[in-house]
Amino acid sequence: MARTAPLGALGRDDLSLAGGKGANLGELVQAGFPVPPGFVITTEAYRDYVATTGIGRTLPHAPDAAAARALFDAPIPEALAEAITDAYRALGQGPVAVRSSATAEDLPEASFAGQQDTYLNIDGVPDLLDAVRRCWASLWTDRAVAYRARAGVDSAEVSLAVVVQRLVVADAAGVLFTANPANGRRDEAVINAAFGLGEAVVSGEVTPDEIIVADDAVLSRTTADKRVRTVVTSSGTATADVPPEERGSCVLTDAQAVALAALGVRVAAHFGVPQDIEWTLAQGEFLLVQSRPITALRPPVAPAPTAWPLPRDDGMYMRASIVEQMPDPLSPLFADLIRPAVAESLHHVLRRFFGPDPISPDDTDFVTLNGFAYYFYSNAGMRRLLAATPRGMRVAFGRHSDLNGVPQWREHGLPDYQRIAGVWNDVDAATMSARDLLRGATELIAAGADYYTYVQAVIPQAATAEITFTRLYDLLVHGAGRPPALTFLVGEDSEPIRAERSLFALARWCRETPGVADAVVAGDALPEAQQAAFEGRLAEHLARYGHATYNLDVMQPVAADDPAPVLAALRFALGGQAVDPDARQARQAEDRARAQAWLVAHVDPVRRRVLEKALGNARALGPLREDALAAIGVGWPAARRLLRELGARLASGGLLDVADDVFWLTGEEADRAASAWDGGRPVGPSASVAVAARKAEWRGRRQVTPPGWLPAKGLMYRLFKGFMPSNEAVQSGPTLTGLGASAGRATGPARLLRGPEDFARMQPGDVLVAPITTPAYTPLFALAKAVVTDVGGPLSHSSIVAREYGIPAVLGTGSATARIHDGDVITVDGDAGRVLLADGPDTE
Ligand SMILES: Nc1ncnc2c1ncn2[C@@H]1O[C@H](COP(=O)(O)OP(=O)(O)O)[C@@H](O)[C@H]1O
Ligand SMILES: [Mg+2]
Predict the structure, then answer these.
(1) pLDDT value at position 110?
(2) Domain Pyruvate phosphate dikinase AMP/ATP-binding, which positions (predicted)?
């Protein structure tokens, strides 16, 4: 095998022979990019050296790194030295850069960057051979050895290539990222530039200028005070002071920056992924000296919105009610499909309350502002609504009231919704027309929105029953040792608790079936004999509970189509980290029995009977609130299945890159494409660019906390802001205020959960911090020490479940997810409704 090779003879696949640096430089040369000429002393040469000198045998036994490096004092055997000398002569001799090029076969290239030596301005054969040996020896620094030990790489197997390259006596040098690492944007390039050779930049000795280029123009630049630069000396390089008058001047002109960025764009296009490039500038010419992929580049994020322009100024926009289930900006398709559905269901409910609808279609809307869902009410419509209220109240509370939420929900709301979902669950999506797929999803989403109006009618009835009991209890029961009222209210089954028990039953089966529990915990394949049984049980669980939504946007997977969060919860259950719900309920039942005995001993029978009647009512109705809420996603698995089938067709037709991108189309685009598909026409040119831009925009918008009410002024705002589900005040300082929804105080590391994709990160003892929680979050409460949310009130899911688990909760803070960082140690005071933030003073 070749012990040296000219750069131009190498390509990106020659990693093991030429190392990452050498292989990519070879690729650049072959593709015609400007690179200083050079050659690579391959990994074969290293192996040849350690074998011929015999140090390969002693190296692994060297007592320490210094001793290992000392072994490289052995001269390079003649034949190899000759090969290197020949290659150097062929390059034309003179000053060169001698650069370590690691293979990183077993390790990510990034971890290796800068670990091995590089020598600039090496001149003449003896110095070259010396420098090469020093590069090889640099595989054996303490740091490199320790790193390999940690990564489990056998040091006896490592090898190193060396790039020898004509030295560029650079006027300036630096780094070019062809995508912006700060915001992930692939259409921005970031240039770091300093005077002199690049060593001072890559070693961090000098703060370089930073220039951001987008659309062939300089978007921004920061010009640094560049105190030093690397210069060539008679025998190498040195760090020298930059004359004071030059320090603050720009290293690159705008035109140069744009030209360099353009070069980078071509390199990135050649490699197919954004690149991290090292460049030099000499005599007005850019030469590239390294290129490698940018590791761990985040997905692109557009700037966060700062203004909230309102489409209409004759009304108000608010985020409450069904919007609480939509904490994130909406996907374009969901926004368009839910808009008429919510607007129509609003009129439906008004008709139920008021008989003739007091407001016209023009008075209400369900829109997005910066992508976030808002109800709109016109001022005129609101006035008419308030004027009609007395009549509405009569209807509501009259003898034939249909505000009686629970029976309405039980007899109409839930069964109607289940029936519609059932119809679409049973269809064979593959045989449907594209427009029918869309129609089905639209109908399901409308049914879900309509169903939510029944949920809203259950909530007050359930709440009233609980409040009635609590009030009576406070009124009638006194004395030392009085059990808390809550003791009587918790421990009842509701849909999320039933889901949790079903999961624990699955965990129990896994534990009792040989080999299953271990495989599930490790994420390994199950024993073949148990595979089908496990899948059957999981499918049963998902069929029963897998529709629970984390977030109402139909773009978000539900457990039925992505069980990953359920499997994470199963792992917790198997690891014994989560509280077993049966054990919890047994304990609660004991507490209740004790409390009951206390009542018998301390409260007279007449008062007790009154209390018991109210309690019976509260225990029967309270859990229905959770049952009602948990069913909101009943139609979602089918809606998602239909939309993804449509997406798959549009992907096969070239409109989309992948089926799931269907959610990033607008309703109109999806409709048009569906019609085209059914008509056998092309579904349109690729929407790839638009979809990527919408995703970036969505990520940018997701960074902000949407105001709960817009415009934040006027009579209505003052009247209603106290009822909003999140604290509307702008908060700063060491504490965060919300609503204390479950008592107690706990301190722990914050776990920021934006959605199901974060569930697996939750650890026992963490404080769960989320925009909202929905019934699908319930298994996480079994691990949590406390709960904090942006949105939620005393009747929200988080509140009810936190009380059930006996952990403190502070809800509706408005800005928990914006102000708390993942891992911050915070203290949640559920009695005071306050969260002590990580950087706050300790008030213990
Ligand atoms: N042929 C060269 N001519 C001039 N400068 C060079 C040359 N090769 C590398 N350099 C400079 O030295 C810096 C570090 O070299 P490199 O071998 O990439 O070390 P590292 O692996 O630590 O990044 C480069 O960023 C570049 O600025
Ligand atoms: Mg480098």
Answers:
(1) 42
(2) 16-297
In terms of DSSP H, where are the helices of 92-214? 109-112, 125-137, 142-151, 199-202
Q: What is the pLDDT of residues 478-507, one digit of tens each?
A: 988 899 999 999 888 999 999 999 999 999
Q: Name the closest-CA residue to atom 11, ligand 1.
A: 198
Protein residue with its CA nearest to atom 14 in ligand 1: 199
If pLDDT is split at 50, 70 and 90, which confidence band does 391 have? low
**Would 574 be classed as within a structural domain?**
no
Ligand 1 interacting residues, C-beta cut-off 6 A: 36, 97, 99, 113-114, 118, 120, 165, 167-168, 170, 173, 197-199, 202, 278, 280, 289-290
Residue at a domain's end among 166, 182, 212: 166
Nearest residue to 566 via CA among 520, 603, 527: 520
CA 364/CA 381 separation, integer angstroms: 8
Is residue 15 located within the same domain as residue 158?
yes
Check whether residue 190 and residue 158 sit in a common domain.
no
Q: Does 86 lie in the same domain as 39? A: yes
pLDDT at residue 677 greater than cutoff 90: yes
> Are 690 and 656 within one domain?
yes
Q: Is the peptide bond preceding residue 496 cis, with omega within 30 degrees of 0?
A: no
Residues 254, 336, single domain; the answer is no
Residues having C-beta closer than 5 Å to ion ligand 2: 278, 290
Q: From CA 811, how far away is CA 740, in angstroms rounded?
A: 7
Average pLDDT in the chain: 91
* Domain interval for residue 276: 172-293
